[in-house]
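Researcher: Here's a chain I'd like modeled. Treat it as a single chain, no partners, no ligands.
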Amino acid sequence: MKTVRILIADDHKLFRLGLRQLVERHNEVEVVAEAATGLEAVALAKLHTPDVILLDISMPELNGIEAARRIHEEAGDIRVVIVSMHSDRRYVVEALRAGVRGYLLKDSSPDEIFRAIRKVLSGEFYLSPQINEQVIAAFVKGGAERPSAFDILSGREREVLQLLAEGKSTKLIADLLNLSAKTVESHRAHIMDKLNLHSLPELTRYALREGLTSLE
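Model: Modeled as a single isolated chain. Structure tokens:
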């Protein structure tokens, strides 16, 4: 079996270290890079073109779902597996829409992590059994869910909202996203209008509630 090249993206250094040690127990696995932010994950994905990315959702600058979307659009055929504490059905659905091929919870066993890697490399999808149970339960329960940020805002607007909630200035957001300051201000106005919110604290609370940022 050829060497499987993996990128690990998580904002917690200890978790990255533990996951790296875990996957590198297998001789056929090589961790080619580690990322601590979503934007760094996108950049390193394009630089190293790994076979698989193990990606957290709650990360600064760009959450994992938006990072997965950017990687899917900009970095070619890289298999992304979410490794997250979030088990909510909305996160799973949006991750799959973003091009993610697998979704694991952080308490998954080592065997399950490798099972997921093998599955996605063979072209299949993999969801943790707990995720499957929750998605099915939500489907059976039925009922309309309230619109989420993924329904209301565009991908770019969600990126800007996360950075605003993290306290980034207009100039820094413009630099991070390669936009003009005027465009960032326009996105901010559209976000407030769509969400019917009128202040930065309100935007921050909304971003936290929607899981777009954790501010850890």
